[in-house]
């Protein structure tokens, strides 16, 4: 199709890259190559739950859910207080449902049950059977079947340009020319330096750790520097509440936990979706204390399954890895858990005003008694009194970095915009590497996968057209 080595070259083999490669082939690009720095296909996408946001799908209709992209657009923009590019978000929500169905047509199977990801008005989260790995496997299989080539262990370190037009990439001395380049290299959660620069709220918690793939080093922020792309989405991404017991990922707090701030006051519904909880914790300086009593801890441990509000179909019912008696006893010895015989003494141990904590616990207990959380409307099924000594408090911070959302600014055709605002010819980007699409409030579960697959497809289609 072109005088280059390949028509479309995709950097990165997560779902954004795989969707781009397959869509490029479907759109007529004959020679498509995916370059991947690691020895395995899939990046963070394969470690992921693969939950995907999309509106107006056949899966929703089958479940009797009346939804459309306009409703998702409204929810998305409102949750993000319009601090995102409206036209790009419009394209995302118009195409996300179609992208969910495209995956379904390719062979991804979803559970019948859809869930609410965050605080939206309709259940829009599609849950794939086999999680993210299954989605990666399906896409990779179709790529191979369609003749897409993969170059694993090939870490791209620069772009090749010709008079301002991107015409290829290079890894060391290996140069490969292309009619168009799609960058889909994921985020930068694995780079402490880039976190500090582009997502300081995630870098500054003191306990920060990242749950994604090794390849999330933010290489693209370095290797695109010469073409001077615009960056968007500073200090955005997703952080989860973490107790510093161990580096085990737990997306939600069990609902029975009561959170108080440094003033010893509650500040939220503890079962809030994680996209909301991230912002609520930020307002508290990213520190809070989980407070509970021995009886509730014992009951939760005996129950054997974590009492999360969110129930993802197919996720095995298991004990919370942190909030059970064995772990709490162990962490007492490491001084990561505080225990006292009275609430007032507990306040002294964690350094919050005694009168505040005592009053907070009284009010919380009244809510548990009446089944009515008069302050934050937590579901009655999670309301537990804090009344049976000993009492416990655990410091938590928003320290688990789940993904990063600052990156190359793209328009609604997934074209990368330069510093001045002009399109950089020949350069497209999709997925976590693109900035400005996922906003200050993560709309999810499913926001990132929705973005990656939808804009991966768009990038592939546009790149194929550009290569022509
Ligand atoms: C445990 C976990 C659970 C999650 N669950 C969900 C969920 O259920 N729903 C949801 O929406 N989001 C979820 N997320 C987030 C979501 O999965 C990711 O944001 C998304 O998969 C990123 O996809 P991507 O294609 O942009 O990047 P990735 O999947 O990370 O792929 C990028 C690829 O580029 C490669 N690469 C990087 N640099 C180079 C280079 N220089 N040269 C060549 N290749 C390079 C990387 O090695 C990697 O393979 C989760 C994340 C994690 C970690």
Automatic annotation (TrEMBL):
Protein name listed in UniProt: Unannotated protein
Q: Which cofactors go with this protein?
A: FAD
Entries under InterPro entries matching the protein: FAD-dep_OxRdtase_2_FAD-bd, FAD-oxidoreductase_2, FAD/NAD-bd_sf, Succ_DH/fumarate_Rdtase_cat_sf
Q: Name one GO biological process term.
A: steroid metabolic process
Residues in FAD-dependent oxidoreductase 2 FAD-binding domain copies: 7-448
Gene3D superfamilies on file: FAD/NAD(P)-binding domain, Succinate dehydrogenase/fumarate reductase flavoprotein, catalytic domain
Q: Per its record, what are the GO molecular function terms?
A: oxidoreductase activity
**Tagged with keyword Methyltransferase:** no
Keyword terms: FAD, Flavoprotein, Oxidoreductase
């Amino acid at each position: 199709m072109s005088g280059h080595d390949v028509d479309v070259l995709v950097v990165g083999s997560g779902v954004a890259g795989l969707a781009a490669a397959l869509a490029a082939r479907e759109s007529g690009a004959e020679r498509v190559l995916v370059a991947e720095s690691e020895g395995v296909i899939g990046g963070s996408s394969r470690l992921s739950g693969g939950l995907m946001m999309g509106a107006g799908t056949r899966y929703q209709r089958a479940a009797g859910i009346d939804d459309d992209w306009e409703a998702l657009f409204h929810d998305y923009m409102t949750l993000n207080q319009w601090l995102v590019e409206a036209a790009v978000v419009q394209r995302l929500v118009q195409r996300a449902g179609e992208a969910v169905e495209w995956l379904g047509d390719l062979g991804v199977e979803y559970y019948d049950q859809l869930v609410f990801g965050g605080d939206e008005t309709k259940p829009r989260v599609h849950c794939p059977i086999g999680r993210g790995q299954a989605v990666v496997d399906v896409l990779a299989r179709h790529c191979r079947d369609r003749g897409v080539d993969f170059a694993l262990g090939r870490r791209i370190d620069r772009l090749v340009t010709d008079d301002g037009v991107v015409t290829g990439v290079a890894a060391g001395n290996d140069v490969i020319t292309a009619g168009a380049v799609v960058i889909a290299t994921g985020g930068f959660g694995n780079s402490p330096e880039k976190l500090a620069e582009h997502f300081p709220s995630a870098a500054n918690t003191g306990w920060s750790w990242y749950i994604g793939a090794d390849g999330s080093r933010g290489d693209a922020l370095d290797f695109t520097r010469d073409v001077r792309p615009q960056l968007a989405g500073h200090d955005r991404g997703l952080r989860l509440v973490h107790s510093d017991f161990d580096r085990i990922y737990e997306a939600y707090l069990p609902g029975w936990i009561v959170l108080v701030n440094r003033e010893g006051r509650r500040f939220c519904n503890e079962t809030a979706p994680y996209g909301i909880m991230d912002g609520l914790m930020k307002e508290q300086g990213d520190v809070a204390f989980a407070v509970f009593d021995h009886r509730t801890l014992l009951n939760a441990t005996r129950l054997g399954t974590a009492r999360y509000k969110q129930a993802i179909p197919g996720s095995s019912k298991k004990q919370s890895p942190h909030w059970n008696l064995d772990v709490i006893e162990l962490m007492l010895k490491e001084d990561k858990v505080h225990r006292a015989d009275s609430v007032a003494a507990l306040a002294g141990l964690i350094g919050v005003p005694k009168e505040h904590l005592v009053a907070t616990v009284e009010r919380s207990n009244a809510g548990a008694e009446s089944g009515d959380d008069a302050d934050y409307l937590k579901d009655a099924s999670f309301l537990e009194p804090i009344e049976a000594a000993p009492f416990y408090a655990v410091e938590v911070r928003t320290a688990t970095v789940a993904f990063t959302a600052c990156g190359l600014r793209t328009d609604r055709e997934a074209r990368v915009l330069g510093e001045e605002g002009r399109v950089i010819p020949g350069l497209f980007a999709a997925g976590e590497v693109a900035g400005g699409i996922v906003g200050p409030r993560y709309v999810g579960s499913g926001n990132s996968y929705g973005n990656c697959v939808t804009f991966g497809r768009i990038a592939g289609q546009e790149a194929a057209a550009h290569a022509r």
